[in-house]
Amino acid sequence: MELEKREFTVLVSSVASDSHTWNLVFLQLLLEELGHRVVNIGACVPDDLLIASCVRHRPDLVVISSVNGHGHHDGVRVINELRSHPDLIGTPVVIGGKLGIGGVDNARHTDDLLRAGFDAVFDDSAPIAAFREYVDALGALTAVTA
Amino acid sequence: MSRIAHQVSSAVAFGDFVAEAAAAGRLVVQPRMGFSDPGQMRSGLIATKLADATTVGTITLDSYTRVGADGEARRALAEGVALNGYPIVAHEPSTTAAVVEGLRGRGFPVQIRHGSAHPEPIVAALLGAGFTATEGGPVSYCLPYSRLPLRDSVDNWSRSCELLAAVPDAHLETFGGCMMGQLCPPSLLVAISVLEGIFFRRHGLRSISLSYAQQTDAGQDEDAMRALRRLGREFLDGVQWHVVVYAYMGVYPRTPKGALSLLAGAARLAARTGGARLIVKTVAESSRIPTIAENVAALEHAARAAERAGTAPAGDDDSAVYQEARAIVDAVLDLDPDLGRGLVRAFELGYLDVPYCLHPDNAGRTRGHVDGAGRLAWSRIGALPIGHLVTPPRAEGMTSATLLTALTHVERTFDDERLERTAQMTLTTTTAGTTTAPPSPREHLTSPVTRTVMRVQDKALTAAREYLRDNGFTELLPAVIGPVTDPGGRGSKQVDVDYYGHRYKLMTSAILYKQASLLGFDKMFSIAPNVRLEPPETANTSRHLAEFHQLDVEIAGAKRDDALKVVEELVAAMVDRVVTEMPAELEELGRDKDAFTDLLSGAFGRVTHGAAVADLRGLGHAQSADAEIDWEGEAILSRKSSRPFFITDYPKGSRGFYDREDPAEPGVLRNFDLIAPEGFGELCSGSEREFEYARIVARMRETGENPAKYGWYLQMVREGIPASAGFGIGVQRFVRYLCGLDAVWQASAYPKIPGVVSW
Ligand code: B12
Prior knowledge:
The complex is a heterodimer of chains A (146) and B (759).
Chain A: E1 9-13, H1 22-33, E2 37-40, H2 47-57, E3 61-66, H3 71-83, E4 93-97, H4 110-116, E5 120-123, H5 128-145
Parallel strand pairs in A: 1-2, 1-3, 3-4, 4-5
Chain B: H1 14-23, E1 28-30, H2 38-50, E2 57-60, H3 63-66, H4 70-78, H5 93-100, E3 110-113, H6 120-128, E4 133-136, H7 150-165, E5 171-174, H8 186-202, E6 207-213, H9 218-235, E7 240-246, H10 256-272, E8 277-279, H11 292-307, H12 320-333, H13 339-349, E9 366-370, E10 376-381, H14 400-407, H15 409-420, E11 426-430, E12 433-437, H16 441-446, H17 448-470, E13 474-475, E14 481-482, E15 496-499, E16 502-506, H18 511-517, E17 523-531, E18 547-556, H19 560-581, H20 583-588, H21 597-600, E19 605-608, H22 609-618, H23 631-640, E20 645-648, E21 671-676, E22 681-688, H24 693-702, H25 711-719, E23 724-730, H26 731-739
Parallel strand pairs in B: 1-8, 2-3, 3-4, 4-5, 5-6, 6-7, 7-8, 13-17, 19-20
Antiparallel strand pairs in B: 9-10, 11-12, 14-16, 15-16, 17-18, 18-23, 20-21, 21-22, 22-23
Helix pairs in contact in B: 2-5, 2-11, 6-7, 7-13, 8-9, 8-12, 9-10, 9-12, 10-11, 10-15, 17-19, 17-26
The complex binds cobalamin.
Cobalamin sits between chains B (32, 34, 60, 63, 66-67, 84-85, 115, 144-145, 178, 180-181, 249-252, 284-286, 288-289, 407) and A (17-23, 26-27, 63, 65, 67-69, 94, 96-98, 101, 122, 124, 128, 131).
């Protein structure tokens, strides 16, 4: 069988405490250029709105972005809630941005976030190519199992 | 400079304080500072108050408090998670009272900055804690900060304005001049700022500030400032008001020099165009919440830049920015006698429409771009009421790459400018990724900058030779190779040469021969080449060269204090000669000769290594007590000082075997470094020397050196050499400091950058 990339739906969101949006605009454009349909639910997204949106849109991938420095704290809370919803246990969910207030030091939050249930963590220091590769690989994987 | 000199006013009220400073011709500078730990918040306010500038204090609130998630803020505090600001609602009122106790008030007003579309709990908390100055706005604290419907934000801000207006001395600043931080043409920012100012006034406020954030072009910014002040005069007559400038609010330069240079531009903008107050940004802006020290450095840097700025020529106060802003303000004011309802309607109609704003109540039909001249321009105006004034070019499609290019325009200009200004550098690939290589011999040696710098070096060395000769020193020509050399270079490698079948070394420093020289000369000096293959990672520190020169001095029978005195006099002699005889050259290099006023007016500062470590730790920098001050720490201390200073008494283990251990205080060395101010870092290292055979051998063993390698030297020491003290001044580093250069390689005629293939 051919491994063909499939267009899938990506839900882009920030977390409840974060109002930055340039990051979201950027990610939306990037994902659209990779050939995917993007639902961008914006900044300051309360946890229940995020869950409701995920349940409604059934995204193939959820991309959470936060740069205000609270991402590591908000991220753990959000992923616990997502993972405790029966429909979202297996949905690929990634987080990225400036996840703490410590600059290069932020990479130390990665393990906690992975342990809490994220499928991948893209710290600010990682090149955006790593994210692109992740999304491409996920596209290929979806094609096989679909 | 005396700190007292900055006490321009003993005013209690925020607006009065700023007005009195403005009348005295001083720009008020203010940080954007906020820490969740009350102790750190207090230290930050103290440091702001003591900074060498006319300051007001800031408490910036964290993101949880801004969105009303006070429970989440409490949970984070309990878990010891550091927040991005001070949670004024979650902390007990008594905690906040303790933060400002004895600090706030006469001569030091403190403003609460937040970013909330439902501000009542915050306003209640700040009033409850005795604060009267804050920031906000129905539009500017909603669209960039919240998904709350604009209508609700207008209601919330109406009530909050009235709460504030009921308090004497209340001051409210609009965030309208910033909005999304970037890519919004200035006229819309000016219009929103003015409209919110009018909103505040109509809700009873009597002391107001209008804001404007620095954008991409200094000339356009000056037009915008004049437009804003003219509109202020037209609409806010009768209330107390001033204009506050924000240092650039978009993607910020990453290099410290780029960041500081952009900040200086904002300070100049404010000073030249009648801005009364400036909110600064720090060198950490692009990456993380800044430390207290970084905030203070930014305040002082901005204050100095403002002092030097002068005033702008009267200029056009009827510019395109004014025309567009006035058209928008008029159209919005005409919509409804109630400005709150008018604002909501204006967004529905697209009379107000902020580029790239995702808020559901923003129409999203406008776009801004950076035009070919570097100015912000409209590419789409949607329904903005400026169609008669603007014909935007056809908007190009937007991709993630073109968006990033537009967003990073300022960052790249300022980061690259620092790299490109003095030499067009080409990129060369080395083992460790990409590093900048120096330009070709022809480019470098014919460059006016190099030629001026070399003449400054020549002048400084001439002055040094004269001073030393007049004081009884003899110049000896240095050795270049020998069987053994100084092991001291941390992390650097020595270069071997084949000397008739023996493995000799290129000198990493002259120390062994300096001590030998004393056998024939009590006071000697050399200008000696050193080769140290520093790790390639140091290529970008701006301060390492693989080949450089030291002005080496050694004095028989001298103690450390004798050496310190010679350093002070020698450095002053060189600086004085250059400042006196080469003012035109310094000016050509953009070097302000006032930078040396403190240096030339007295003794240098002195601090022990232990005290420097404690100082750095106090400022939140994790400095090891057993090592040399690290690069960042040195830069922090260097930036804090206005003249060179000595760090003395390094711990044993951090230096070579020849630095004398204090007989009275084992473990502590009788040595020193001289650190330049302004972030230029170390200029000179020296010490009293070990000279007794047994001690030298013991110290060699302790530092992991094999005494067997040091044949001729140890033989000589065993037979006896004089006690001495001496030092070496890094010639290229010193010239870099004198000329204010970005990187040390620019002070070398034939630069060898670590790890870079060079000519
Ligand atoms: C513009 C800006 C604002 C605007 C935002 C307007 C808006 N609605 O978007 C305004 C002025 C309103 C603002 C407000 C605040 N800001 Co702000 N802001 C910035 C600034 C200057 C630029 C951000 C930007 O536009 N970047 C461009 C976009 C495209 O890139 P990006 O966001 O950096 O994301 C990149 C990567 O991180 C990555 N990425 C991001 N997310 C993800 C996710 C995934 C999955 C992947 C793969 C990659 C990825 O992709 C992007 C492209 O490389 C930055 C500092 C800077 N960078 O210079 C501060 C900054 C992000 N802000 C900061 C803060 C703290 C705030 C405030 C809390 C105020 C405060 N205390 O100072 C509030 C936010 C309130 C809240 N509720 O959260 C801090 C965060 C500190 C930290 N993390 O350590 C910064 C770093 C400034 C600083 N040094 O203090 N801000």
